[in-house]
Amino acid sequence: MSSGPAIKIIFRVIFVMLLVLFIAACGTSHRQALRTEKDYQRAFNEAYFRGRAQMEVHVKYGRVDLLSDDYAIEVDNPDNFHEAIGQALHYAKETGKKPAVAFYIADQKHGDRDKLKYAIWLCDTYKIKTWFINDELKKARKK
């Protein structure tokens, strides 16, 4: 028996293994790629504003996460809703835009959904626009 067929089998096995690794890497969920607030900020900007919102815009005593044509947007998780609401109001005043908060949940914990509902209710009370980034990204993937 010559070594030719054995080498072909080895190359095929290596090729199949590399192909499986490549497919697995491509199939990694979008959610896993989103780890930080900035990751969610970028993804939301791309999905909702098609990348047209300005990111990290400096204002007096702060920095707006996203500045669109209409909104000064603070991106944060529901744990920080107190700060997010205050920042959105501050950034709106500084930019002349409407206040907004885009919430995200990276790793859902017990109580996150209830806190998010409360934060959205509070924002509605003060006429602050809200988005839930996780839902916006799901909608964008379906398009």
Keywords:
alpha/beta, 2 domains, Rossmann fold, 5-stranded mixed β-sheet, 143 residues, 6 helices, 5 strands
Structural account:
The protein has helices at 3-26, 30-33, 37-49, 81-95, 112-125, 133-142, and strands spanning 54-59, 62-67, 71-76, 98-103, 129-132. It is built from 6 helices and 5 strands; from the N terminus they run H-H-H-E-E-E-H-E-H-E-H. It folds into 2 domains: 1-30; 34-142, Rossmann fold, CATH 3.40.50. Helix 3 crosses helix 6 (133-142). It has 143 residues and is α/β, with parallel strands linked by helices. It is elongated, with a radius of gyration of 22 Å.
List the helices and strands and how they pair.
Blueprint: H1 3-26, H2 30-33, H3 37-49, E1 54-59, E2 62-67, E3 71-76, H4 81-95, E4 98-103, H5 112-125, E5 129-132, H6 133-142
Parallel strand pairs: 3-4, 4-5
Antiparallel strand pairs: 1-2, 2-3
Order of helices and strands: HHHEEEHEHEH
User: Architecture of the largest domain, CATH level 2?
Assistant: 3-Layer(aba) Sandwich
DSSP, total strands: 5
The main sheet orders its strands as 1-2-3-4-5
CATH topology of the largest domain: Rossmann fold
Overall geometry comes to elongated
Overall structural class, as computed from helix and strand content, comes to: alpha/beta
